Amino acid sequence: MVKVLFVCLGNICRSPMAEAIFRDLVKRENLEEIIHVDSAGTSSWHVGARPHKGTLKKLEEYQISSEGMLGRQFTKEDFEKFDYIIAMDEMNIHDIYDICGQPRHPKIMRLLELTDKKTDVPDPYYTGDFQETYNLVLEGCQALLDKIKAEM
Ligand code: 4NP
């Protein structure tokens, strides 16, 4: 089993969007038995909460399931458990290392590093632009799936 964890700050906007989009891509390729997908936030602010309504609206628009997703906080154990820990921005990377107390590790990366954008995923909690985030997250998720398949 290959385990993939998406991480953002609140676990209500970007990382649940990435989790849902990536799970959809995995399902389309019949890889659900092989690739496990989850998401978490570096903060505890939205533990137990459903994704932001802007994220839910985008997922619904693209007919992607958001079933069962509830906010949770990233833990030290996640570092051990997951094979790919995919952050949305540089601050998430910093916070992940703070929480897990590990030296730099190649399994922790920014989503858009895998594309030619090589930048942070804008946070729609502040920008209000869920479409821009959706487009970038989809591009990153496609690149991530290609990488995982190449490494399987
Ligand atoms: P996310 O966005 O990290 O993409 O889930 C945020 C969600 C909530 C807050 C900040 C960012 N907040 O301040 O509550």
From TrEMBL:
Belongs to the low molecular weight phosphotyrosine protein phosphatase family. Keywords: Hydrolase, Protein phosphatase. InterPro entries: LMW_PTPase (IPR050438), Ptyr_pPase (IPR023485), Ptyr_pPase_sf (IPR036196), Tyr_phospatase_low_mol_wt (IPR017867). Residues 2-147 form the Phosphotyrosine protein phosphatase I domain. Its EC number is 3.1.3.48. Pfam families: LMWPc (PF01451). GO terms for molecular function: protein tyrosine phosphatase activity. It catalyses: O-phospho-L-tyrosyl-[protein] + H2O = L-tyrosyl-[protein] + phosphate. This is protein-tyrosine-phosphatase. The keyword Hydrolase applies. It is an enzyme of class 3 (hydrolase). SUPFAM superfamilies: Phosphotyrosine protein phosphatases I.
